[in-house]
Amino acid sequence: MKKLLTAILLTTSIFGFAQNQSLISNVPNRNTTSLNGVWNYIVDPYETGYYSFHHDEYDKQAKPSNAAYFNNYHAVNKQELVEYDFDKSPKINIPGDWTSQVPELKYYEGNVWFKKSFDYNLKAGKRLFVYLGAINYKADVYLNGKKLGTHIGGFTPFNYEVTSIAKAKDNYLVIKVDNTRHKEDVPTINTDWWNYGGITRDVTLIEEEASFVEDYNIQLKKNNATLISGFVKINNPNVSQNAVTITIPELKINYKGKVGADGILNFEIPAKKISYWSPENPKLYDVTLEYNGQKLKDNIGFRTIETKEDQILLNGKPIFLRGISIHEENAKGGRANSEEDALRLLNWAKELGCNYVRLAHYPHNENIIRTADKMGLMVWEEIPVYWTVEFTRQATYQNAEDQLTAAVTRDKNRACIIIWSMANETPISDPRYAFIKKLVDHTKSLDNTRLISAALLTQSDSAGFGTINDAIGDYLDIISFNQYLGWYGGKLEDAEKIFWKTKYNKPVIVSEFGGDAKQGLHGEKNERWTEEYQEYLYIQNLKMIEKIPHLSGLSPWILVDFRSPRRLLPGIQDEYNRKGLISNDGNKKKAFYIMQNWYSKKEKEQNQN
Length: 609
Ligand code: GCB
Fold this sequence. Notes:
CATH architecture of the largest domain: Alpha-Beta Barrel
Largest sheet: 9 strands, parallel
GO molecular function: beta-glucuronidase activity; carbohydrate binding
Oligomer: single chain
CATH class of the largest domain: Alpha Beta
CATH superfamily of the largest domain: Glycosidases
Keywords: Glycosidase, Hydrolase, Signal
EC number: 3.2.1.31
Number of helices: 7
Protein name: Beta-glucuronidase
Bound molecules: (2S,3S,4S,5R)-3,4,5-trihydroxy-6-oxo-oxane-2-carboxylic acid
Shape: globular
Number of domains: 3
Radius of gyration: 25 Å
Family: Belongs to the glycosyl hydrolase 2 family.
């Protein structure tokens, strides 16, 4: 945790005012004004609004030209040349990707400018921040023509202070979004999901006092079921006002502490008679933090999660993770964001019999995490270190680490999160080993209370054994691997003859298995793409999986069909990965019921033990 605080402080002091600033957490419970809704946009493939005709960056000029789109300029007389006009440009809903909203932009990867005007009456002494839930992939953000900063990474939040820039009337927030893929980015150019461009999560104004609670961690201490511990961090600490109170009325906790000159309070609070959070009892306590006359509320669950030899223990008891993998997509074939989107996905997971979800392959929106917390679904959260990022490049590592830090900062108070995942199917090499090991160390320094894993690749030998032979396993709490028997290789008939071995006496999760089926397409069980093939694939894979030593959970690939530019077979895939147990239009396939049955048996078995 110390490292998290240092990182936060460093970011503030190096960049100073109005650069990428330390992240404010628990935004849903603050004094906010939404900037969601209808925005204007300009598609700008040549970045005409950003560069002069000699390719000089306008935002590096001492007084940027009116031609710079972030100036949102309007001609003052009939003679003046101005070649853009946000107010006459088309409109789009924010949050929302352009792929699913603008048919002509379905395949567009490049620059689009967005503008929202607003009024804001900020009283003297108060502070104002603009918080962006996620923008894919690169965002240059300007308010009233002033640059607030640049952010990269498509799935994590960031914020800027705008106290001295915002006005009572006619503010214009302009954001240049670029979703061009690059080899050195995280993720890299090659993925199996749609590169949805745009402002894909909420845009929010946060109003705060001069000095306020910016972030905190309130969770059970590692391996201690009766000690709540963590920190409170004050933004712009006020030396004469350093008292912080944490109350959890139902636990009769009324803790008073003082922040130091650095604005940080570290605390430990003994707690008795906690009703522990679990899938059967997703108990969240009302928690209030009081500081300098301000109250910040949250709903927090308490549970322990640990491993003991080859078992995962939730609140001290072995648990089997009945899971499913999920991409962040909504019913319209766009990026999901709302609570309604979250309920659609998580209710299906519940119906399948899940107590756990793998939110692949990047940090999902805060609504789904908070909904899982309320519903009692344990969560695997992941960063997009997917396939082959540039493991030797320091800036690529830093990018991955920044995404991880933001995800942990946002979600560390959610009991539902039990696993931080470092990577997916990354090819074995020395630089990759060093890269992931560093991410593991970093994660532990931020949060040592959760388990760490990564979805690994496997090998098979001639004797019919599947092996997990990846030295990074030394650093993981859980050995997770993806395997595709009967889809990318191997015969389904051989399922019962295949055995798995691992040198680790640690819990094992099959983080992916599956195959495609076009919902409504029927045929023989050996006919690819039919529901019968997928059903048979699940039956056979489960026979094999049952015998895997140390098996502690599964997250088959995947709950719902999802868009992918790699999946082009006409009439079958039509740009969708069809490995869903449910079609993108919401119809269950036969394999759904195989998995549902298996989980129902598993649950009964567990309840008997
Ligand atoms: C995988 C990847 C996942 C793909 C899936 C597939 O192993 O982790 O992102 O979508 O296979 O369908 O090939």
